[in-house]
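Input sequence (169 aa), recorded before submission:
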Amino acid sequence: MPVTFTVNGKSATVDVPTDMPLLWVLRDILELKGTKFGCGAALCGACTVHLNGTATRSCVTPVSAVAGARVTTIEGLSPDGTHPLQRAWQDFDVPQCGYCQAGQLMSASALLAKRPTPTDADIDAAMNGNICRCATYHRIRQAIHAAAEMPRATSNTRNPSGSPDETNS
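Predicted structure, token format:
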């Protein structure tokens, strides 16, 4: 049975088994390769996307669970790479190998959407479970704090989660 949902602001309909993980729908069917496979058990965070604005592990989310929902991937965070988190990630040289960074950015943007000025404890709680084998955790925390202080672009009506800001639409 086809499943219809919104991904990065565009309607998508896929005809796949309803228990197929969202990760594979995004990567293999919709060709959105930014979301990564890490562990397949929702333990590492590499596959994190936003489901209706909430950070969600796509490797264990069946596509049937997103019917009618809004999904945002790293490709939808900012069309031109100027999201405050993306800029802060560059400013603080966060990535080393970079494999986990899409999931890190998606978890961090969901945090900033809920807590625009997070404490270290807020960051630790939100980022818990996002594993970086290069151990750039200190720079990740610095970048999140820096992004929280950056002005939001007003020409691009996106909120920190990457979803369209419904109050400005």
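Checked by second reader. The longest strand covers residues 3-7.
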